[in-house]
Amino acid sequence: MRRKFLEYYNLFIGGFWTVLFITLWVQFSGRATLLESFLFTLSFITIAFPATIYTSKVLLKRTLLKQKTVRFIIGFTWTTLSLALMLVLVVKGFLWLEINGVFPLSALIYETYTTLLREFLGMIPSALMILVGFCGLEFFREHALQEKAHLEEQLLFLRNQVNPHMMFNVLNHIHILMQKNVNLASELLIRFSDILRYQLYECNNDRVLLEKEVKYIQDVIEVEKLRWGDELNVDCQWEVENGKKLITPFVLISFIENAFKHVSRMPSAKGYVNIAVRQNGDVFTLMVENSKTTESPRKKESGGLGLATTTKRLSIVYPDKHHLNIHTTDTVYRVNLEIKLS
Question: What is the pTM for the complete model shown?
């Protein structure tokens, strides 16, 4: 919803002003001639428009940037009173036109006008409602923009970060393999270079092809399998109907890395990591399960910063379109994620 709001914000505001103009004109036209009601509505909108721009684009932004609430309250109050006064002067002007025969006497102006003070006090709620409404919309927009910027910073961080521990282990493993198995070292190096390439270059958009994200995950898993060798059982299932579907990058990798990072390392029993990726229509599911032991419990059930960041991103990018379930026991850690792709 917020993504759509930001995308069509200007169109939404333009539509709002158009609907407001037509509504007021239709309402006023029943109490005066079409020409007078049109000009009165146009004058009303022409005066209200710059006042809303000033309060929402200038006063509100200054407050958000400099946190000077008192100045905003003073400025907002002054603008509200000024707008109310200018609207009353518009009414006063049309009253003069009716009295002098430019327009016929109408129920819009002549029959309803009282005193300047009463008209001014009666116009304050209308001015206040207009300014509060547009400030509220602008505040929601600024909040959504800040949240989007924060999300983009998280994505940039995730894309550019290279797990130093993993990189050190992989390069050290490649160095050892170069002395024993050149072909295997070459395969590991190619896989690792593909991982770095994807992290740094191939995912600069909000959405990437599902097949590319899956390929990235597969490369990470293959690197881990080569590192672990026979010390770990890794079982993977891949069922992707349409790799051209779009998905947000890096919302899956934390669950994969977390499984290999915390898998059990008991000399008496071989640990395991089971991964299942499925995509059927718009529904994408990821299941990751790994063995764990009580000797080295997780510090946090959420899995640390990586999973916390991923969980936050999922809630922002796929609100009401994903379901995440994390189940843990003394021996098993299981993640089930379902995303409705767009």
Answer: 0.58
